[in-house]
Amino acid sequence: EERPGLAATLRALNGALGRPAALWLKENAARNLRHRDFLAPRAALSAAFPGGQVPAEVLAGVMSLGGPGVLAVRGCQETPAGLAVQVQRPEAFRRLLGALPSPVPAEGAQGGWAVLHCPALRGPTALRPRHLRPLLLTDHLAQLLRAQGVSTCLVPAVAEEGNREVLQQLRIDWPPGPSGSVLPDAVLALKRALGQSPFATACEKGAGRATLPEDVICKVHLKSFVEQQGLVGYDPNLDVLLVTEGKLQSLAELQQAVLQCTVSNPEACLPLTFQICCSIVHVVSCEEEFQQQQLDLLWRILDPGAHTALQKHLVCGTVKVTNPSLPIGVDQYFRLRKQQMYEASVMKYGELAQDEAWTEVIDTLTVAAIRFELLSTAHRSQITLDLGDSSISTKGTKSGAFVMYNCARLATLFDTYQRAVEQGMYPPLPPASELKYSCLREEGEWLLLFNYLLPFPEVLQQAAELPAPTKGIRVRANTETVCKFLIQLSMDFSSYYNRVHVLGEPLPHLFDQMFARLQLLRAVRDIFHSALATLDLPPLSQI
């Protein structure tokens, strides 16, 4: 039986009204979910039907809704707010929890390839928080695309030893290797293309040459190329670029990445899948955008293939650091947040947090805190890091630590249940098909299923989308979606778990409800694990 999906259900509801426009809204708030699950607002009905009156045959069509991936309807009625629908909830629980398959990509997800380029790793200097934001975003976007079946290649390879150690600390899996002197044949081919390009001019010998850096090979007139090609979205101040050996090596590495992707995915010529508009994404901070536009245009000039025309730029807002305001490296930032996390854990758990066994837990909590601090805001917005204030990282319901804490609570719940089974206190969890889902009547249970389990595949898909811009070279992504989803899930799960005693008294007449709740929370646990995997965060088994 096909897993019910949010998109399929909304499509069926709109089809039942006989209107191409999307009229239906999914309810999210607990107070509204007490009465309805979907709503066609009164204003939309008034525009679609004369006098806003829905014909009886249309209402009958909504009531008889069904089909693959569609939630069955229990009731449909006119209300002052509009046309309200409630689905058959026990049936929805059964279909969503019955098999507990691994979360699958949402509708429309396919294969394809994408090269994700993070220029922040090319600098010879130590990484700073402003470099870390595009780096973490690139890593997260790669995981999201892979979850949708897209093959990804990360560029550049990390050559600097200090940067490799920082990446290891932050649990970023990035390709290592020397990125400079490799690919000499590709660099030579680019030099030949430079010699044949009408937009390149040699640097003349003489007094003028003495003012140029020694590694300059030639000049390229970017502005002329932009005007000739009619390109839009580039900085108007782009003019003449001094081409160096290092710039050609960067292009050679990008070319090699494209070649690897296309060779490993010969059938996926273009990555135009579920609104991915480009195959090469440059993820840059706003401070690096100008330099990356230069490299983009140089590549288009020297390698005028279809892939270079697919380049897009995903630009991150500034990262403002306060307390201290002096520049600090990513390694210092990590050590500071780790110390703050350690102190917060000691304050909460006492001597346990000073035990050596907690080192791994503290490291994981620190990485989670940093990732949520930098990724839970829309990528184009500014972030302010107050390094003197640890509360945003270590406390509160919007921190990565809070998410990891609730993930650990689920692990503890199932460990406790398993030990109780081994001691003969409870029977083992029966097969999913034998559970009585009608026992799930608590408000928080439907909230967890309807707001998180049902739309989760679409959440991952939305986070991975790179919709084509109306014009220009910038793209926007919803890379904050997963962090916000996990924060809200943690808040609703915590509220439910604090209110409901899942492992009740070992009395047979209470087992049906306990088993159904455990099955629901197994699914919630799997959602936590799958979402955290896109952030390269392992689930915690204890806190």
UniProtKB/TrEMBL annotation:
Q: Where is the DALR anticodon binding domain?
A: 403-543
Name the domain of life this protein comes from: Eukaryota
**What are the recorded GO MF terms, alphabetically?**
arginine-tRNA ligase activity; ATP binding; tRNA binding
Return one Gene Ontology term, BP aspect.
arginyl-tRNA aminoacylation
Q: Which InterPro entries match?
A: DALR_anticod-bd (IPR008909), DALRD3 (IPR037380), Rossmann-like_a/b/a_fold (IPR014729), tRNAsynth_Ia_anticodon-bd (IPR009080)
Which Gene3D superfamilies does the protein's record reference? Answer: HUPs (3.40.50.620), Isoleucyl-tRNA Synthetase, Domain 1 (1.10.730.10)
What is the name listed in the Swiss-Prot or TrEMBL entry for this protein? DALD3 protein
Q: Which organism is it from?
A: Bucco capensis (collared puffbird)
Ranked from the top, the taxonomy reads: Eukaryota, Metazoa, Chordata, Craniata, Vertebrata
The gene name reads Dalrd3
